[in-house]
Amino acid sequence: MHKLFSRLSLAQRLAAICGGLCLLVALALALVGNLSSRYILQLQQAEYGQHLAGQMAAKTASVIGNGDLIGLEVTLEQLLSGNQLLGLSVTDLDGRQIGAAGSGDSPQARRFSAPIALDGNIAGEVTLLLPPSPAMLEQERMALGLFLLAILLSLFVTAIAASWAQKMVLRLRNIIDKLQIDRSGKPSAQPHGELELLEHRIASLPLELLKSSNGSGIDRASYRSAGLLYIRLNSLVNYVETLDESSLLRYTEFQHRLVNSACELYQGELSVVRQFGLLVSFSGHHPSGSPVFRAASAAWMVQQLLEALQSRVRLRLSVSMACGISEAGAACPGDIYPGLYCQHVIDELAALVASEPKHILLSEAASKDEDTATGSQLDHGIANQATRLQGFAEPYLKLLERQQQILISQLLHSVQGI
């Protein structure tokens, strides 16, 4: 039974549970009502039958006292027809029948007896068979109708619950689809049932990388030691003069959303520092690694998102990126205008971007970061003492790819009209 129930969909389970509970409650109420009404009717019939038996005993006492057995038979026939009884009999003190009338016993008849008293002595006993009352028969038909009504009510509740559950399951499936990591279309073993599938999808998410920081924001003094990602919006340069205002606004909003979505995963703070140039600063502690390693991860994520979404838009999505580290200002007293401490690093990154715009470059200082050197794949044979980011090592690469699929599903709805 459990295996059969587990094969049902969530909507069918909810409908079956609601219908079953409704049926149990309705049947319980119908049973209680039937038992209570039946008990009251039986109690009333017992009082009536016992009272009628006493009357029969009083009417037959004088006939038995005279010893007139023929007159007793006539009296019993008259009492039988006058009171609509099934049977009527009289026995003496030894239990021998001395008079009877009627057709005999019946499975539904009830038997009542009363002693026959003569001058204060017991002379025998009168027994009558009382047929089922019309009220009892009507009560049985009403009980059957209540049980049928309970079944119909449970079917109605099942239909309503199925409609409601189907709508809820559709919303749940939409949520499950949004949590899908592998969209390659390859067949894979999936658990049966929406709840099991939701648990499977959530378990496969890199939740340790999606948790946001509980901090109150990046301290501006962290520019003294921070990972920096410089992004130049190459394609935006060509569209500023060619797109109308609304199209340009949609284009820039989409680029901002894409860059911000990728950088927020690694606690990055985005700001505009140059014409068509963005700076994302990473500082503090994060499960992903050092600030420079997070800057490189964000750059890789931006690059992969642009390549994946390029086929969905008609405008070009082209940026150039370089990563560096800001350790200047350690000897500068005070924290006045801390943003000025990294201006020379920004100049260095802008020069790197201009020298090789198609690749993600790392400055010499950034390539010496411990997490970046061990967790990523670097090509050191680049001019200007720069390093090219080629990829990441396992298992971090798999986590990045999962994050990429999640962000793509989130950004797909915002590419309309671009």
Can you tell me about this structure?
The chain has 13 helices and eleven strands. The protein has 418 residues and is α+β, with helices and mostly antiparallel strands. The protein has two domains: 134 residues, Beta-Lactamase (2-Layer Sandwich), CATH 3.30.450; 182 residues, Alpha-Beta Plaits (2-Layer Sandwich). The strands form two sheets. Strands 6-7-5-8-9-11-10 form a seven-stranded mixed β-sheet, with helices on both faces. About 6% of the residues have low confidence.
Short description:
With 418 residues, this protein is of the alpha+beta class.
Q: Termini distance?
A: 54 Å
Strand tally is 11
Strand content: 15-25%
Largest sheet: 7 strands, mixed
What is the H-and-E element order?
HHHEEEEHHHEHHEEHEHEHHEEH
Order of strands in the sheet with the most strands? 6-7-5-8-9-11-10
What is the C-level CATH assignment of the largest domain?
Alpha Beta
Q: Which runs of at least 5 residues are low in confidence (pLDDT < 50)?
A: 183-187, 212-223, 329-338
Averaged pLDDT:
81
How are the elements arranged and paired?
Layout: H1 2-6, H2 10-66, H3 69-83, E1 87-91, E2 97-102, E3 110-118, E4 121-130, H4 134-178, H5 194-203, H6 207-210, E5 226-232, H7 234-239, H8 245-264, E6 268-274, E7 277-282, H9 291-309, E8 320-326, H10 343-355, E9 360-362, H11 364-367, H12 370-375, E10 376-379, E11 387-392, H13 396-411
Helix pairs in contact: 2-3, 2-4, 4-5, 8-9, 9-13
